[in-house]
Amino acid sequence: MLSFPASLRIFIALEPCDLRAGMNTLHAHVADRLKENPKDKALFVFTNKRRRLIKVLHFDGTGLWLMTKRLEEGTFFWPRVAQEGQVKLELKPEAFAMLTDGIDMHGARPRGWYER
After folding, report:
1. Contact at 8 Å (CB) between 102 and 76?
2. What is the pLDDT of residues 61-110, one digit of tens each?
């Protein structure tokens, strides 16, 4: 498990992306669609339509990281758009950990396929 400082901001893109894209395309997506500076020390999280894959873009001050996680079973919980035109949501580190661990954040319980 990766760990990040509690002060790190975490944004998820609410709309699915074509995750065949590399870091340059996701970098542009952060600037153009999410209206954030990709070089801010933040995590930018993307999923595909099936929600079995996430990619996380992060600039650590010296370079750009692109991290990927694919679920072997089930799907990632993904929040829905709450307001018209909303394209991103900021998560607390605890919520991000739940998302990457396969926890359903609505019920705060593991999904049926989740086993630790």
Report:
1. yes
2. 999 999 999 988 888 988 887 788 899 999 988 888 888 887 777 665 55
